[in-house]
Protein backbone atom coordinates (compact mmCIF):
# COMPACT_ATOMS: atom_id res chain seq x y z
CA UNK A 1 0.00 0.00 0.00
CA UNK A 2 1.27 3.46 -0.95
CA UNK A 3 -0.07 6.55 0.79
CA UNK A 4 0.81 10.02 -0.47
CA UNK A 5 1.02 12.87 2.05
CA UNK A 6 0.99 16.23 0.33
CA UNK A 7 1.41 19.84 1.32
CA UNK A 8 2.07 23.00 -0.67
CA UNK A 9 5.57 22.19 -1.87
CA UNK A 10 6.75 19.06 -0.08
CA UNK A 11 8.74 20.57 2.79
CA UNK A 12 6.25 20.28 5.65
CA UNK A 13 4.98 16.91 4.47
CA UNK A 14 8.60 15.74 4.52
CA UNK A 15 9.03 17.00 8.10
CA UNK A 16 5.74 15.39 9.10
CA UNK A 17 6.84 12.08 7.57
CA UNK A 18 10.04 12.23 9.62
CA UNK A 19 7.87 12.36 12.77
CA UNK A 20 5.75 9.47 11.52
CA UNK A 21 8.90 7.49 10.72
CA UNK A 22 10.04 7.77 14.34
CA UNK A 23 6.80 6.07 15.42
CA UNK A 24 6.88 3.40 12.70
CA UNK A 25 8.52 0.00 12.54
CA UNK A 26 11.38 0.53 10.04
CA UNK A 27 10.99 -3.07 8.86
CA UNK A 28 7.34 -2.51 7.91
CA UNK A 29 7.06 1.10 6.77
CA UNK A 30 9.19 2.94 4.21
CA UNK A 31 9.23 6.71 3.68
CA UNK A 32 10.44 8.67 0.68
CA UNK A 33 9.58 11.21 -1.97
CA UNK A 34 6.86 10.13 -4.37
CA UNK A 35 9.16 9.87 -7.38
CA UNK A 36 11.86 7.94 -5.49
CA UNK A 37 9.33 5.40 -4.27
CA UNK A 38 7.77 4.97 -7.69
CA UNK A 39 11.23 4.56 -9.27
CA UNK A 40 11.86 1.52 -7.04
CA UNK A 41 8.23 0.55 -6.43
CA UNK A 42 8.50 -3.17 -7.18
CA UNK A 43 11.40 -3.74 -4.81
CA UNK A 44 10.00 -1.50 -2.06
CA UNK A 45 6.49 -2.96 -2.19
CA UNK A 46 7.96 -6.47 -1.93
CA UNK A 47 10.06 -5.43 1.07
CA UNK A 48 7.67 -3.20 3.07
CA UNK A 49 3.98 -3.58 3.82
CA UNK A 50 3.39 0.17 3.84
CA UNK A 51 4.98 2.88 1.71
CA UNK A 52 4.48 6.53 2.64
CA UNK A 53 5.43 9.17 0.10
CA UNK A 54 5.54 12.92 0.55
CA UNK A 55 5.49 15.84 -1.82
CA UNK A 56 3.54 18.81 -3.07
CA UNK A 57 -0.13 18.81 -3.94
CA UNK A 58 0.83 20.05 -7.40
CA UNK A 59 2.02 16.53 -8.18
CA UNK A 60 -1.66 15.57 -8.47
CA UNK A 61 -2.72 16.92 -11.85
CA UNK A 62 -4.29 15.80 -15.12
CA UNK A 63 -0.92 14.80 -16.59
CA UNK A 64 0.23 12.71 -13.61
CA UNK A 65 -3.02 11.09 -12.60
CA UNK A 66 -2.87 8.13 -15.00
CA UNK A 67 0.87 7.32 -15.14
CA UNK A 68 1.75 8.06 -11.50
CA UNK A 69 -1.27 7.88 -9.24
CA UNK A 70 -3.48 5.23 -10.85
CA UNK A 71 -0.98 2.35 -10.79
CA UNK A 72 0.70 3.12 -7.46
CA UNK A 73 -1.16 5.32 -4.96
CA UNK A 74 -3.85 3.87 -2.69
CA UNK A 75 -4.73 7.03 -0.77
CA UNK A 76 -3.88 10.70 -0.39
CA UNK A 77 -3.64 12.65 2.86
CA UNK A 78 -3.67 16.44 2.53
CA UNK A 79 -1.85 18.73 4.98
CA UNK A 80 -3.87 21.58 6.52
CA UNK A 81 -2.20 24.42 4.62
CA UNK A 82 -3.67 23.10 1.35
CA UNK A 83 -6.94 21.81 2.79
CA UNK A 84 -8.75 24.27 0.53
CA UNK A 85 -7.67 22.12 -2.45
CA UNK A 86 -9.31 18.91 -1.20
CA UNK A 87 -12.41 19.24 -3.40
CA UNK A 88 -10.35 19.66 -6.58
CA UNK A 89 -7.98 16.83 -5.59
CA UNK A 90 -10.93 14.54 -4.84
CA UNK A 91 -12.41 15.40 -8.24
CA UNK A 92 -9.17 14.30 -9.94
CA UNK A 93 -8.72 11.16 -7.82
CA UNK A 94 -12.29 9.88 -7.48
CA UNK A 95 -12.54 8.38 -11.01
CA UNK A 96 -9.55 6.20 -10.00
CA UNK A 97 -11.15 5.24 -6.65
CA UNK A 98 -8.25 6.81 -4.76
CA UNK A 99 -9.55 8.26 -1.49
CA UNK A 100 -8.38 11.75 -0.56
CA UNK A 101 -8.78 13.15 2.94
CA UNK A 102 -7.31 15.86 5.10
CA UNK A 103 -4.95 15.45 8.02
CA UNK A 104 -6.33 16.64 11.34
CA UNK A 105 -5.03 20.17 12.04
CA UNK A 106 -4.09 19.42 15.62
CA UNK A 107 -2.26 16.21 14.66
CA UNK A 108 -0.33 18.07 11.98
CA UNK A 109 0.28 21.21 14.05
CA UNK A 110 1.73 19.14 16.90
CA UNK A 111 3.64 16.99 14.40
CA UNK A 112 2.11 13.99 16.18
CA UNK A 113 3.68 11.17 14.19
CA UNK A 114 2.22 8.42 16.39
CA UNK A 115 -1.37 9.55 15.84
CA UNK A 116 -0.80 10.08 12.13
CA UNK A 117 0.70 6.60 11.81
CA UNK A 118 -2.34 5.08 13.55
CA UNK A 119 -4.63 6.92 11.13
CA UNK A 120 -2.64 5.70 8.13
CA UNK A 121 -2.62 2.10 9.38
CA UNK A 122 -6.37 2.33 10.11
CA UNK A 123 -6.86 3.59 6.55
CA UNK A 124 -4.84 0.60 5.32
CA UNK A 125 -7.12 -1.79 7.19
CA UNK A 126 -10.19 -0.18 5.62
CA UNK A 127 -8.92 -0.64 2.07
> Strand-residue fraction?
15-25%
Choose one word for the global shape. globular
The biggest beta sheet reads: 5 strands, parallel
Largest sheet: spatial strand order: 2-3-1-4-5
Would you tell me the structural class of the helices and strands?
alpha/beta
Helix and strand element order: EHEHHEHEHEHH
The Rg value, from CA coordinates, equals 13 Å
- What is the first-to-last residue Cα distance? 9 Å
What keywords describe this structure?
single chain; 127 residues; 5-stranded parallel sheet; 7 helices
How would you briefly describe this protein structure?
The chain contains seven helices and five strands, in the order βαβααβαβαβαα. It has 127 residues and is an alpha/beta fold.
Please give a structural write-up:
By secondary structure, this protein is an alpha/beta fold. Helices cover 48% and strands 20% of the residues. Strands 2-3-1-4-5 form a 5-stranded parallel sheet, sandwiched between helices. Helix 1 packs across helix 7 (113-126). The longest helix has 14 residues, at 113-126. It is globular. The model has no long low-confidence stretch (mean pLDDT 94).
